[in-house]
Amino acid sequence: MLFLRFSDDRVETFKSQMHEAARQLSGNNISFLIGDVSTADRAFEYFGLKESDVPLLLVLASTGKYLNPTMEPDQLIPWMKQYIYGNLTPYVKSEPIPKVNDQPVKVVVADNIDEIVFNSGKNVLLEFYAPWCGHCRKLAPILEEVAVSLQDDEDVVIAKMDGTANDIPTDFAVEGYPALYFYSSSGGDLLTYDGQRTAKELISFIKKNRGAKAAAVEVTQTDAVEEEVTSSTPSGSIQDEL
Q: Is the confidence at residue 214, as pLDDT, over 70?
């Protein structure tokens, strides 16, 4: 999709380049569309785009979104070829990573979701919410209560992410708000929480599905190593050394 201001004096050149791109790249299962930014308000809001990025070329694919902002007409075909060759990095809409994230309920954005959820080695309950969602506002103090109740447990994280301001990874099948997911410290599949939205039920769910505590695993591994060393060392050789 090529978004232009149709008042731009280069609009005919852009259209010519799009038609040529469609001709050259017709065998790659790509549809080519041209739109006036003045009628694309909802699309820009949905994709997190800015009018200052126009002229803007946007590719929507199964592998993600690809953007070429403030482009010139002669960049269109070479950039599209780079997309086809697999040389472009998908665009991810994300709020800025918070400089301070010390509240009981942690803030997750698209750019730090891997760090906090998948790579932290902790048990994470994550809520996807929308600022306009009434059910989300009702759930907010309940999540806060859960987070405060478990704040002394270093292996548990309660977090939230604005699903309207961040791209949601395809790991999560979010169809509405609020949506609650749990990822165990032991890895495995994401779990969807569909139970009652009460602090008691949420805490019970976390305790039931959490992974083993890191400290407990470390002690067990250490004991095993010590046992192996003891059992594999002949008592006679120890006496000889003495």
A: no
CB atoms closer than 10 angstroms to residue 155 = 18
> Architecture of domain 106-210 in CATH?
3-Layer(aba) Sandwich (3.40)
119 in Cβ contact with 171 (< 8 Å) = no
More confident residue, 171 or 207: 207
Domain positions in the chain:
2-85, 106-210
98: preceding bond cis by omega (within 30 degrees) = no
pTM of the model: 0.71
- DSSP letters spanning 33-82: -EEEGGG-HHHHHHHT--GGG-SEEEEEETTEEEEE-S--GGGHHHHHHH
Strands 34-36 and 105-107: unpaired
